[in-house]
Specification:
Blueprint lengths: L9 H11 L24 E14 L16 E16 L5 E16 L4 E3 L5 E3 L10 E13 L4 E13 L4 E12 L11 E8 L1
Antiparallel strand pairs: 1-2, 2-3, 3-6, 4-5, 6-7, 7-8, 8-9
Length: about 200
């Protein structure tokens, strides 16, 4: 559920965004529209959209995060309903800022590695049944991410929080705070030169 559990693979999206100065959509939720600003409409522009659903997949979490062991081996799907807002601004110089936030209820379902495929970009596709030994977690989800970029620099940062209970009564609280930065001289298509990801379960 670490960074991949968030609605976007933010680092990859931001790197592509910085490289071509477009962002197809700042949210991958089913009802989030593709924003024209920064995509089909170059700067100068600003756009805001509201959405109500998220539908994501994610990879196993770090084994040292204090999570139940199954979360270090299984992949997850996150399906939620609530309130989301996405916003982007691109100025005349093609510098940009974007943000997305969502809060609502979500169901997290676990899938064994045999039930998923992962492509070269780290995108997860569910191809088989859920883990028969695990019941889904249902609870409250709140997530936020944002970023900015200009000719020489780019940053993204995000937070993720989920608190829920599965069918056997086991509770879990998941928290993640992450940050990535590309500074002058860093390849915007490559990895960030500064980053951290603080992921914990309790």
């Amino acid at each position: 559920m670490a960074r991949p559990m968030r609605r976007l693979a933010v680092g990859a999206t931001l790197a592509a965004f910085v490289a071509v100065l477009v962002l197809p959509s700042t949210a991958s939720a089913d009802t989030a529209p593709d924003l024209a600003c920064g995509s089909t409409q170059p700067g100068q522009c600003t756009e805001t959209a509201h959405f109500s659903d998220v539908n994501d997949t994610g990879t196993p979490v770090p084994p040292d995060a204090g999570c139940p062991a199954i979360l270090s081996t299984d992949f997850v799907s996150i399906v939620g309903t609530g309130n989301g807002v996405e916003h982007i601004t691109v100025n005349k110089a093609q510098d940009g800022w974007f943000t997305s936030t969502f809060t609502g209820t979500a169901t997290i379902t676990l899938y064994p590695p045999s039930s998923v495929t992962v492509d070269n970009d780290g995108n997860v596709t569910i191809v088989g049944p859920p883990d028969a030994n695990e019941t889904p977690y249902v609870g409250k989800i709140t997530e936020w991410f944002g970023g900015s970029f200009n000719k020489q620099n780019a940053v993204d940062h995000g937070t993720f929080h989920f608190a829920g209970t599965n069918g056997t009564g086991q509770s879990i609280r998941v928290q993640d705070v992450s940050h990535e930065a590309w500074t002058p001289g860093t390849d915007p298509n490559g990895p960030p030169n500064k980053s951290f990801d603080n992921f914990r379960c309790s």
